Amino acid sequence: MRQLKDPELLRTLSYMDGAWHAPEATFVVRNPSTGEEIAQVADVSADDFSHVIAAAKTAQAAWAACTGKERAAVLNRWYREIVANVDDLATILTSEMGKPFAEAKAEILYGAGYIEWYSEEAKRIYGATIPGHQRDKRILVLKQPIGVVGAVTPWNFPNAMVTRKAGPALAVGCAIVLRPSEFTPLSALALAELAERAGLPRGVFNVVTCLDAEAFGKALCTHPDVAKISFTGSTKVGRILMQQAAGQIKKLSLELGGNAPFIVFDDADLDAAVEGAIAAKFRNGGQTCVCANRIYVQDGIHDRFADKLARRIGELRVADGFTDGADIGPMINRAAVRKLDELLEDALSKGGTVVASTDGTDVSGTFFKPTLVTGASADMHLARYEIFGPLIPLFRFQGESEVLQLANATEFGLAGYFYSQDITRIWRMAEKLEVGMIGINTGQISTEVAPFGGIKQSGLGREGSFMGADDYLEVKYLCFGGVE
């Protein structure tokens, strides 16, 4: 691993109740590009889960009693610590996750934006005054923090997925017990170090590193002192957490799988659509939940679009994340590459044709060349499953009603994209696409100022914007009587 300017940011112990916890067991974190061991990280046992939850509950009461302005000041200091250490945080992120260094820096700043945004929102958690229903009645509405939040974050955005949950939770007065992915725990631990420096009170922000994701998830769902679960990951695991939390009717925020359609109509700006497809598909090597999964191109422009896209794909550089000019880093592990190989083999067996791929150095077996497949059809696995890699299927379509039916023919409903210059079509598509977020003539939609989330089996709740705070609040209605 490259040397850090501040070696103290490379933490390997869990951060629990304001202290660095060192259990006997550890697990290894490796660089997916090289297979190199980066660190041995604390593997917290299930016996300690109740302790950290109890500590969070105690800390939360005092944190909630702070004013919004007091919480805002701490979060703002945390934000400034993150920005000041962007290079080291990006180095840690690229080392454990693999994405190109420039993209890792962009993630750090994107993630910091959530802390900055919610440091400002901390002072704006407004209730309401409602006109009474009778002459002697007055009605007020309060918003109060829900309590202890149990959070689980994925490996693909190991920094930003933490800040996207911690920002709103902490801003409104909750405490958080967070488990990062076992593949990428170092980014979350570095954030904990910076949170401590920023003055976040003991026990308010806890990072539990462990291999036993199942035990940790069950502990969060069944412990009576955890009021809310926030999870980003697969729909399969999301269903399990919903079932486990049902016994206590816990509040859930779930950001789950996606199968995003990317639709190009014949009146689109083709060059802009190609660049949008590159942005929507190849961010993080295709390993994002909002990546363009199925690209539908209207028949009259299909071949021209395919040629332009193929040329752009050929320009992408596949390399270790620390290589200058790298566009695509490794997949997270060999299993991810095997999945992509299987999806490609299935597509080719059903009539697909590879028309573009890039060259790249394959050192550890975790790299996959960005590949464009034409002749895609609805019976291919590429059409039904989340690809999570730089493999693109290109589908032809004739008309608007046909592509709407194809685009909506999935249990997922996270993101969608389309390119058109026809304002009436834009309105129709925006209203009828069954997704929670839509990019219209753009392939980039993620920002802290907008509500991120899906519908159908892509999840519950929203992260980001002023709406994101609501998922961490309870609404309390007060009715005053006898006011004459």
Automatic annotation (TrEMBL):
Signal peptide range in chain numbering: none
Family as reported in the entry's similarity comment: Belongs to the aldehyde dehydrogenase family.
CDD domains: ALDH_F5_SSADH_GabD (cd07103)
Active site: E255
Record keywords, A-Z: Oxidoreductase
The keyword Nucleotidyltransferase is annotated on this UniProt entry: no
Matching InterPro entries: Ald_DH/histidinol_DH (IPR016161), Ald_DH_C (IPR016163), Ald_DH_CS_CYS (IPR016160), Ald_DH_CS_GLU (IPR029510), Ald_DH_N (IPR016162), Aldehyde_DH_dom (IPR015590), Aldehyde_DH_Superfamily (IPR050740), Succ_semiAld_DH (IPR010102)
Domain of life: Bacteria
The gene coding this protein: gabD
Boundaries of every Aldehyde dehydrogenase domain copy: 23-477
Pfam family, one: Aldedh
Protein name: Succinate-semialdehyde dehydrogenase (NADP(+))
